[in-house]
């Protein structure tokens, strides 16, 4: 205990000297002083004055206790308020320093973000070139040819900066893949077209052969019927001749009539034969027309199938574009959510891209 503390009395305690008094062992001097005062005399309990003196000494102790306790309690309250003041001051200081740090670094941060955006644009461009060789379904040769044409128009120049060599290599590799695929699809489609042509030709030949057979059989049937009728006429004529020879005198007048009738029937048979031949020719011509119509219908059907295939390719391309837009939206929302957690846009974008590429184990993005 210092000499200054030893000469301070209870009445001298104030807010100024409280830090020096209210320390470990700092109040002992006041207790000792009060104790010495109240125990320095022994009042006589048998007298009223003595008893009043004891009560006065006890009151002195209470008064001295209050004189020490009240400034101490006030000092203690100030001590309890001090951490709040210090915390507020520190919080304000830290906030200002953080803002000053961020403001000081902002030009570098802006440059880093711009640099990363520039690199990302080149990386995305290279990936877009690679994606041209990726198809969800087997494409038509014409579609592949159009993709090749579009890719050939992509310029590889100094605008690619340090990615120039990689972009050129990826473009060459992608063109090589596309040209190989185009050759394969063109060969396959040509083979399919040839098979279709051969099938149609065979069907046409089979149909013509069947129609020719029907016409031939009809003509043969007509010939047989004409020959049968002629044979019957010949048989009838022979019988008539035999009958007339047996009764020449009786049927002399009928002979001329029978001869005329025979001639009429012969003419009729001839006309019927000519009509049968003409009918066979008409049927053959009709069969040829039906065959030509079938070939034309097959050609129209093939055109319709080709148009349908082209429409399907366009639909699939539109679906892919919609899927790319949807995924970009999902990735953008995921990035914004991370930014909302006080993660920088650069880091948020990097995290989302790594997750989307499957580079973060056990973590996926639901599209």
What would you note in describing this structure?
- The protein is mostly helical and 367 residues long.
- The chain has 2 domains: 3-104; 137-356.
- It is 82% helix and 0% strand.
- The protein has 8 helices and no strands.
- The protein has helices spanning 3-7, 18-21, 28-39, 48-131, 141-152, 164-246, 252-339, 345-356.
- Helix 3 (28-39) packs antiparallel against helix 4.
- The longest helix is centred in the C-terminal third of the chain and has 88 residues, at 252-339.
- The chain is rod-shaped and about 210 Å long.
- The two termini are 76 Å apart.
- The relative contact order is 0.04.
- The model is unreliable at 1-6 (pLDDT under 50).
Keywords summarizing the entry:
367 residues, mainly alpha, 2 domains, 0% strand, disordered N terminus
Main sheet properties: none
The rounded distance between the terminal residues' Cα atoms is 76 Å
Q: Mean pLDDT score, rounded?
A: 86
Shape: rod-shaped
Based on secondary structure, the structural category is: mainly alpha
User: Percent of residues in beta strands?
Assistant: under 5%
In the residues, how many domains can be counted?
Answer: 2
Give the % helix: over 70%
User: What is the overall number of helices?
Assistant: 8
Weakly predicted, low-confidence segments: 1-6
């Amino acid at each position: 205990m210092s000499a200054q503390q030893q000469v301070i009395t209870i009445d001298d305690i104030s807010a100024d000297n409280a830090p020096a008094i209210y320390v470990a062992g700092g109040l002992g001097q006041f207790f000792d002083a009060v104790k010495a005062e109240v125990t320095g005399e022994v009042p006589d309990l048998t007298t009223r004055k003595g008893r009043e003196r004891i009560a006065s000494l006890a009151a002195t102790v209470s008064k001295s206790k209050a004189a020490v306790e009240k400034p101490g309690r006030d000092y203690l309250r100030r001590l309890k308020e001090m951490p709040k003041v210090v915390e507020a001051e520190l919080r304000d200081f830290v906030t200002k320093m953080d803002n000053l740090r961020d403001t000081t670094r902002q030009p570098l941060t802006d440059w880093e973000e711009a640099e990363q955006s520039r690199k990302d644009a080149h990386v995305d461009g290279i990936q877009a070139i690679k994606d041209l060789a990726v198809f969800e379904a087997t494409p038509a040769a014409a579609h592949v040819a159009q993709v090749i044409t579009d890719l050939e128009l992509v310029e590889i120049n100094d605008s690619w900066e340090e990615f120039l060599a990689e972009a050129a290599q990826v473009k060459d590799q992608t063109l090589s893949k596309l040209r190989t695929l185009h050759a394969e699809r063109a060969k396959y489609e040509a083979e399919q077209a040839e098979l279709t042509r051969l099938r149609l030709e065979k069907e046409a030949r089979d149909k013509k052969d069947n129609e020719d057979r029907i016409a031939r059989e009809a003509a043969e049937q007509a010939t047989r019927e004409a020959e049968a009728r002629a044979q019957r006429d010949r048989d009838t004529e022979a019988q008539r001749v035999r009958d007339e020879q047996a009764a020449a005198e009786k049927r002399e007048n009928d002979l001329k009539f029978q001869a005329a009738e025979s001639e009429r029937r012969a003419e009729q048979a001839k006309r019927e034969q000519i009509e049968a031949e003409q009918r066979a020719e008409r049927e053959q011509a009709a069969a040829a027309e039906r065959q030509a119509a079938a070939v034309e219908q097959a050609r129209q059907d093939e055109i319709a199938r080709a148009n349908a295939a082209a429409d399907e390719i366009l639909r699939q391309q539109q679906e892919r574009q919609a899927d790319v837009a949807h995924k970009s939206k999902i990735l953008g929302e995921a990035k914004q959510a991370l930014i909302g957690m006080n993660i920088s846009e650069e880091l948020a974008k990097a995290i989302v891209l790594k997750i989307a590429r499957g580079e973060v184990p056990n973590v996926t993005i639901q599209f």
